[in-house]
Amino acid sequence: MKIFITGTSRGLGLSIADRLNENHDVVGCGRTMMNPPPKFNYLSNIDFRKPESFQNLDLSSFDVLINNVGIAFDGLLATQSENNIEDVIQVNLISTLILTKHYVRQRLANRKKGIILNISSIIGIRGYAGLVSYSASKSGLDGATRALARELGPKGFRVNSILPGYMETDMSKSLSHEQKSQIVRRTPLGRLATVDDISDTIEFFISEKARFITGQSIVIDGGITV
Length: 226
Fold this sequence. Notes:
Elements: E1 2-5, H1 11-20, E2 25-29, E3 41-43, E4 64-67, H2 82-109, E5 115-119, H3 132-152, E6 158-164, H4 177-186, H5 195-205, E7 217-220
Parallel strand pairs: 1-2, 1-4, 2-3, 4-5, 5-6, 6-7
């Protein structure tokens, strides 16, 4: 199976790509080249702040598109810069939808179906102070998942999203030890999510075992949102 994953220069995207590359043909992308070189094929200079940077990507051969790219800026909405707000919505939602459009058009032009998996977040379904823009972008992505599943189901596409909880990635480094401990205490399963927790779920959703599942948003958070 051939898989295209966005946002694989670091963090969760890099870990997912490394894991999936063990059994699949993975191509990742990001703004900068990783060092040391990745184990999977990697396209640099793909900037989701600038959709024109991926206008000419040939996605027609990929069985799966995983929309993982995402950015966040901490800060109350009243004090956050307009540029930061625009960047979060542009990268996490608008450019992701544009890339997905290219993928769908190219697959349909070649009479092929496809699998689209959006990496969302529990922030999109729960309110967290200081992450208003990020929450809005992820909520939008979940809504797009459901709508696109209806649009593309008749063409044989499956579209789902997964919503990871807090985990040890670059985007959670800003949390203090005390904050992380509090999250663990509030989580029924008593720990943060691991990359394997997320990757195992992804493996399921892109497999034939999930052939009759579409339009779903699955939470992977150890129960913290229940």
